[in-house]
From TrEMBL:
InterPro entries: LRR_dom_sf, LRR_R13L4/SHOC2-like, Plant_NBS-LRR. It holds the Pfam family LRR_14. The keyword Repeat applies. Keywords: Plant defense, Repeat. It comes from Dipteronia sinensis. Residues 123-211 form the Disease resistance R13L4/SHOC-2-like LRR domain. Signal peptide: none annotated. This is Disease resistance R13L4/SHOC-2-like LRR domain-containing protein.
Length: 373
């Protein structure tokens, strides 16, 4: 999504190019017949009453189009005269079936289908040069042909909330993928999470996983620079999401035999927002999960872990540690065994907890001697 916005921004900034914008009830068919649009490189069409059967725009590189009537159909030959089209942004269009002339767009690299109706099948596999595909649609099954887009770098399905089925071996074939955004429909699909192992170039990931048991052991996340990973969480948990963070991890464990040690938390060293919910086999957060002190963490929420005793507790022989230097909010709830945040002769530098502004505590103290930082 970010790359699409940057593309549009760069195009608008290029004042030396031919740009055409049309709104509401102007008749684009007349302009097409008069060859008025022939030299345009960028066209923005807003709320157009009627689309022509074909537009002769051989220089066109960017097309943004929204018809006045919701779910208007595009004629088969509409794109035939646009061989140089590189970016297409369509809003509320019917693309079932996909217009035949779409296959003439050999230079198309960015396709943004916003609230478009695609039906059950979409013949998109022929767009071999596509690098960015953003889809907001009512589809229930992801087309297998998407796996043929082997040059794809960005796949954004974050607004496909009705998505139920992702065919196996579809995501794994996108080996050049750098950014993948999934809606919560992915958790109901039959696509294997193990396919993510094939995406060695992945640097951005948004994904919802219904249960920690579904996460394959050894799944690597070290290369991720931006991520929103939700494992086992429900809508109630997601309401705590904060704005302004691009590295979020939320984990909910209901099985006492599942441990987060040596897992995903240790791989994602630059987490900015972390939620730990449920019994995770952890008694001491900092020492067991991140001995570097969570150097980037800004927001930390720990709930419903009856085993947790301390947030910070290092052995006496440990080296000095800066613990949570950027932490702004700390939320602790339903931690029946929690005794202290910092325990014993903890070796902390003066910068530990130096940004903390909000501390929320909802605990029934049964064993606590004294609650302190």
């Amino acid at each position: 999504m970010h790359d699409v916005v940057r593309d549009i921004g760069r195009l608008i900034a290029r004042r030396d190019q031919h740009m055409f914008t049309m709104k509401e009830n102007l008749v684009i068919q007349d302009l097409a017949e008069e060859n008025t649009l022939k030299n345009c490189t960028y066209i923005f069409l807003h709320d157009i009453a009627e689309l022509p059967e074909e537009l002769d725009c051989p220089q066109l590189k960017f097309l943004y189009m929204k018809a006045k009537t919701r779910f208007s159909k595009i004629h088969d030959n509409f794109f035939k005269g646009m061989p140089n089209l590189g970016v297409v942004h369509l809003i509320e269009m019917v693309l079932s079936p996909m217009p035949v002339s779409f296959h003439f767009l050999k230079k198309l690299q960015t396709l943004y289908l916003d609230r478009c109706h695609l039906g059950d099948t979409v013949d998109i596999g022929k767009m071999k040069n596509l690098k960015i595909f953003v889809l907001s649609s009512d589809i229930k099954k992801l087309p297998e042909q998407i796996g043929e887009l082997t040059r794809l770098k960005v796949l954004d399905l974050g607004q496909c909330y009705g998505l139920q089925v992702i065919p196996q071996n579809t995501i794994s074939r996108l080996t050049q993928l750098e950014e993948l955004y999934m809606a919560d429909g992915f958790q109901r699909s039959n696509g294997s999470l193990g396919e993510l192992e094939h995406l060695s170039q992945l640097t951005a990931l948004q994904i919802y996983i219904p249960d920690a048991k579904f996460v394959p052991k050894g799944l690597a996340f070290q290369k991720l620079q931006r991520f929103r990973i939700y494992i086992g969480v429900d809508a109630w948990t997601l309401r705590y999401r904060l704005k302004g963070t691009s590295r979020i991890l939320a984990l909910k464990y209901d099985d006492a035999n599942i441990s987060v040690e040596d897992g995903i938390i240790k791989q994602l060293k630059e987490i900015e927002e972390l939620q730990l919910i449920g019994k995770q086999g952890v008694k001491n957060v900092l020492y067991e999960l991140n001995r570097d002190g969570f150097p980037k963490l800004k927001h930390f929420r720990v709930e419903r872990n009856p085993e947790l005793v301390y947030i910070v507790d290092f052995p006496k022989q440990s080296e000095p540690c800066v613990a949570f230097p950027h932490l702004q909010t700390l939320h602790l709830a339903e931690l029946s065994s929690l005794e202290k945040i910092c325990h014993g002769q903890v070796t902390l530098t003066p910068n530990s907890f130096c940004q903390l502004r909000t501390l929320d505590v909802f605990i029934q103290f049964t064993k606590a001697e004294k609650f302190e930082l």
